[in-house]
Input
Amino acid sequence: MENNEFQQMAAFLQYAEDNLKQLELQHQVIGQGINDLAATMLTIENMDKEQPDGEGRLNAVLPIGDSGFVRTSIKKPPGYLISIGARYFIEGNRESSIQLLESQKEKMVATLGAIEDRMKKLSEQAEKVRPVLEQQVQSMRSGEGAQLPKKINTDDL
Output
């Protein structure tokens, strides 16, 4: 195996490992976004089901930072503000808000699937290269030269 080909394979393996780390982070962020959308939909559904008290108010708990809350009461909302990104919101009733959130969730699930596919492909490619590189390093350490019984075309990766 030529030194240049060995370097290309090592560079590809490093590239694949770095990309897998980045894809894992993206996977986590998208997964958390899906969980947040599900929690928002559940909250909307629960608020819609809750019966207001005699004054038309609902009991609520509002966050005041990351670890503090205030008990309060609010009027039952006629609609909800749903983020569509870039600090823009759409106001809608329960049905339209849930529909918008479901649409966002479906897009995120599709993105999550694409990330998982890319991760699988990169892992498979890296696993084709890794044993060849390990064998080459082992033969170089033992002084056997740079001959390998198996050659992988890096253009096919």
About this structure: The chain has one domain: 3-49+93-156. The mean pLDDT is 88.
